[in-house]
Specification:
The chain has 153 residues and is of the alpha/beta class. It has five helices and six strands.
Length: 153
């Protein structure tokens, strides 16, 4: 196994509860498929180098906190500047699956946020969505129940 994007599971993480649920789903799927895991955090295009480095440290801490014994598959974290949807679409161009967390309803009133909608509309691979993890977080702090996931393929 390797962690190149080709044939990997790619997950977008921003530290939100829903993105942490997506991270757990992505790691479990990568283990089941026997492939690598690419964990992507996107920062603004104009983000400074120190901010990118700080976000890289934050992403590494998130992964270590959620998987103290490791993800169970070859994993790579990356922090990239740019438009979130564009970066995730590029990162998942040759992936087996793109996993995203989102609220069920966006602030703009749509079913999902614009990033998720754009990824669903334009991804070259299936997209798995983990939405509204607030109830599961109350039941099992930090670990969503599998029944709380919504799948879009």
């Amino acid at each position: 196994m390797n962690t190149s994007q080709h044939g990997s599971v790619v997950v977008g993480v921003n530290g939100s509860l829903n993105s942490i649920a997506a991270l757990h789903r992505a790691a479990a799927t990568a283990r089941r498929l026997g492939c690598g895991l690419v964990i992507v955090l996107v920062v603004a295009p104009q983000a400074s180098d120190p901010l990118v480095a700080a976000e890289r440290d934050r992403l590494d801490r998130i992964v270590r906190r959620e998987f103290p014994g490791g993800t169970g598959v070859p994993s790579r974290c990356q922090v990239e500047r740019g438009d979130t949807a564009v970066v995730l679409l590029r990162a998942s161009a040759d992936a087996r699956l793109l996993v995203l967390g989102t609220r069920e309803h966006s602030a703009a009133g749509g079913l999902f946020g614009t990033t998720v909608s754009r990824c669903v509309d334009h991804a070259r691979c299936p997209v798995d969505i983990c939405a509204d993890q607030h109830a599961s977080a109350a039941r099992l702090p930090g670990i969503p129940a599998l029944g709380d996931y919504r799948r879009v393929v």
